[in-house]
Design a protein that fits this description.
The structure is a single chain. A hairpin with a 5-residue loop joins strand 2 and strand 3. Helix 2 runs parallel beside helix 13 and helix 5 runs antiparallel to helix 6. This protein is 72% helix and 6% strand. The longest helix has 27 residues. The mean pLDDT is 91. It has a two-stranded antiparallel sheet with strand order 1-4.
């Protein structure tokens, strides 16, 4: 005899709504923007949101691993800025060199910062906020000292090969003379998809990924179970640093130059996106699909504010509220389950 499923009661419905409140709010805001600006959900706009999501996905994946450990990383944006400068310097100095070599070098530079972060936290039990705030300042100071705030252009070959090269194009209209108006989906999107799949595999199908969640859930229990907690923490922050280096390289390629502002507040947007996507600050909880959704939702907010003509100053305020509300809802979810 087939069991009859009971309809969810009012409390279950309320809990579900509160658990997904941030996403529901963003969807409602997006609908409002679409009503006020009918081109918001147009193909060109959606391609722009998709491209920006692809650009910010790597740094969010890096921060997500740190938050799974019940920590955080405030250095990500500045590491991206420094590695963007290093990538541009390598590219402009060795024009005949391989872009892959330049990418590997800057990812290695990011990993060095990750080792410092992870070692200080794992060995000396320092709070992630303090450690990564310190390395954020050190990295930014290093960048300013090396660059003297000068911009360095990326060679056009790097830009067209990695970031702006057309993956495929979609017709979004017709010109007055009858020619089609095409909107290009850049290679950057495909690279982000590949990276996301790789990170899904690392999180879900490797011993390292399982150890990461074990340490984030209960560090002492993980240690008793035979997990090398110190190496796991260092490994997670090294992986994050490599992803920041990747972000810096791709951003320099996408923008075409490195600037002192490249990377500014990237980590804040990443943290907000990750929490919106369900990666909990209490540790041991999170999914790659949630990170992807969170980054997309964050870009939806940013693009929506641009469509409405909201100033950059107000954008900071709205982002701050998004982070605060997302963290409150995350803690409510944890307390309810506890």
């Amino acid at each position: 005899m087939t069991a009859v499923k009971k309809a969810p009661n009012a409390k279950q419905v309320v809990n579900w709504v509160l658990d997904h409140a941030m996403i529901l709010i963003i969807v409602l805001l997006a609908i409002v923007v679409q009503i006020l600006r009918p081109t918001f959900f147009g193909v060109a706009s959606l391609v722009n949101i998709l491209t920006n999501t692809a650009a910010r996905m790597p740094i969010a994946l890096g921060v997500a691993g740190c938050i799974v450990l019940a920590g955080t990383d405030l250095s990500g944006g500045r590491v991206a800025g420094l590695t963007a400068y290093l990538a541009a310097m390598l590219a402009s100095t060795y024009l005949g060199g391989s872009p892959i070599v330049a990418l590997l070098v800057v990812m290695l530079a990011g990993m060095v910062v990750g080792v410092v972060n992870g070692f200080c936290m794992g060995k000396f039990k320092l709070h992630p906020f303090i450690v990564t705030l310190a390395t954020q300042l050190i990295v930014y100071g290093t960048y300013l000292t090396m660059s003297n705030s000068a911009q360095v252009a990326m060679p056009k070959s790097y830009t067209t090969e990695f970031a702006t090269k057309t993956l495929f194009a979609i017709q979004t209209g017709t010109k007055a003379n009858g020619d089609p108006i095409m909107t290009a989906v850049p290679m950057l999107v495909l690279l982000a998809v590949i990276l996301t799949v790789v990170m899904w595999f690392v999180w879900n199908k490797t011993t390292f990924g399982k150890n990461m969640f074990a340490v984030g859930s209960n560090e002492e229990a993980a240690r008793v179970s035979g997990v090398n907690v110190l190496l796991t923490i260092i490994g997670v922050f090294m992986m994050a640093g490599a992803l920041y280096g990747y972000t810096g390289f791709m951003e320099a390629c996408r923008i075409g130059t490195s600037t002192a502002t490249l990377g500014l507040n990237y980590e804040n947007d990443a943290i907000a996106a990750v929490v919106i996507g369900g990666v909990s600050f209490v540790g041991g909880t999170g999914k790659i699909s949630g990170v992807l959704l969170g980054v997309f939702m964050m870009q939806l907010i940013i693009t929506g504010m641009t469509f409405l003509g909201i100033s950059g100053n107000i954008t900071y305020i709205i982002k701050g509220f998004v982070i605060l509300i997302a963290c409150i809802l995350d803690m409510r979810k944890y307390m309810t389950r506890k």
